[in-house]
């Protein structure tokens, strides 16, 4: 019986370790190292498993030509926040604090930040009216998003047009 309890306890500890997400500070440090080496910015997106708009943004960023454009100019990092109690294990420790530090607490998700390779903040997903662009889909939102990409990367005008086409909702 003692052996069975020991095996069970070790299994639970192992499962907890496996299910625990990587710390935000470690993720950002790795991203910064890659960004420095590859001369890129760091694009951080806060998301949750229940968030439809988060999934839509991920799909748009990873679709066809846009994936190669984002990969060429950014080190992309997805951080999980705001999960329900039964999915808290999906959250990255420290991600909620980073979201709060950069004005995203009341903004909703997806919320995103663009850092330089030294992790200095360049842009947030807040527009000129201090509203979260989130996953941009209407022309005004997409224009604001593309302008932030323009000023934080070397994306060409034709690259930005491809991104615009991907994000704008087709009627």
From TrEMBL:
<protein>
    <submittedName>
        <fullName>DUF255 domain-containing protein</fullName>
    </submittedName>
</protein>
<feature type="domain" description="Thioredoxin">
    <location>
        <begin position="4"/>
        <end position="151"/>
    </location>
</feature>
<dbReference type="InterPro" id="IPR017937">
    <property type="entry name" value="Thioredoxin_CS"/>
</dbReference>
<keyword id="KW-0732">Signal</keyword>
<dbReference type="InterPro" id="IPR036249">
    <property type="entry name" value="Thioredoxin-like_sf"/>
</dbReference>
<feature type="signal peptide">
    <location>
        <begin position="1"/>
        <end position="20"/>
    </location>
</feature>
<dbReference type="InterPro" id="IPR013766">
    <property type="entry name" value="Thioredoxin_domain"/>
</dbReference>
<dbReference type="Pfam" id="PF13899">
    <property type="entry name" value="Thioredoxin_7"/>
</dbReference>
<keyword id="KW-0676">Redox-active center</keyword>
